[in-house]
Amino acid sequence: MIQVSTGTRWNRRLGAGLALALACSAITALAAPPAIDVVDDRGRHVRLAAPAQRVVSLLPSLTETVCALGACQRLVGVDRYSNWPASVKGLPQLGGLEDTQIERLVALKPDLVLAVGAARAIDRLEALGITVMALDPQSMADTQRVLDKVSQALGDRAAGLAAWQRIDARITTAAARVPAALRGKKVYFEVAAAPYAAGAASFVGETLARLGLGNVVPVALGTFPQLNPEFVVRAQPDIVLASARALAEMPSRPGWAALTALQTRMACGFPADRWDPLVRPGPRLADAAEILADCLAALPSP
């Protein structure tokens, strides 16, 4: 009879135990979700051990992005200007770019903060161990990219692609509603009364271009340049677009009563609830295109 020593039996048991432990570790590793690594607009790697569940947004368009991705319920705090969808109005408001309420934000225990790169709070938050993703949406391409990055951080990248496809399709549909007689007409779109205008290079200008319209502000002047008021008078835009308040006071500006577009009512003034989608580079770009198409379809025939 072959005798097996006690030491040999112990070694066999140890080997079997190690093999079982390694197998269990492998199974656990396969079952655990992979870590998330997203490069933000600073070029920094934002790493999350799991999809973000407690999110603070410090920019309205980023708040809207989270909600457009079906994750509104993950928001635990927003900036003071976030107002869409209505459900976010009940969340803690944490200030703005210059005066973020750091202590209140930290107390919410977010696992991810979304902010524009210029936000003063970023360095302080990161020093406190808070994960921040800095994103700067400025164009249609940026909106698509931001949807992709935020959807990755939320653990559902497919949602970002699907959201952009819906936005793009709705813009195309809106463009088809613009009267053919308005194609190529030059637009002056005022974003603030200094006056600041939306240039052809801005996301507003890109939306106008998708609708088949031109822009009195060339690409060379930048995205939202401050104009000499005489520039607008000399440009004689075919169509004027602005907030309702700005449009109402335009005829009182020196020389602006001579604008043919104002005389012939080739102009639209938008109330606040329809203005926000027009001036935010986020997932409501499709809403903006539809609002503009409604305005253009209601203008007098040129």
Write up what this structure looks like.
With 302 residues, the protein is of the alpha/beta class. The chain folds into 2 domains: 36-165, Rossmann fold (3-Layer(aba) Sandwich), CATH 3.40.50; 178-297, Rossmann fold (3-Layer(aba) Sandwich), CATH 3.40.50.1980. It is 41% helix and 14% strand. It has helices spanning 6-31, 60-68, 102-107, 122-127, 140-153, 157-176, 203-210, 229-235, 244-249, 260-263, 272-275, 285-297, and strands at 36-39, 45-48, 55-57, 75-78, 112-115, 132-134, 186-192, 196-197, 214-215, 239-243, 267-270. Strands 7, 8, 9, 10 and 11 form a 5-stranded mixed sheet that branches. Helix 5 (140-153) runs antiparallel to helix 6 (157-176). Residues 26-31 have low confidence and may be disordered.
Helix run count: 12
Order of helices and strands: HEEEHEHEHEHHEEHEHEHHEHH
User: What does the main sheet amount to?
Assistant: 5 strands, mixed
CATH fold node name of the largest domain: Rossmann fold
Structure at a glance:
With 302 residues, the chain is of the alpha/beta class.
What secondary-structure arrangement, pairings included, does this model have?
Elements: H1 6-31, E1 36-39, E2 45-48, E3 55-57, H2 60-68, E4 75-78, H3 102-107, E5 112-115, H4 122-127, E6 132-134, H5 140-153, H6 157-176, E7 186-192, E8 196-197, H7 203-210, E9 214-215, H8 229-235, E10 239-243, H9 244-249, H10 260-263, E11 267-270, H11 272-275, H12 285-297
Parallel strand pairs: 3-4, 3-5, 5-6, 7-9, 7-10, 10-11
Antiparallel strand pairs: 1-2, 7-8
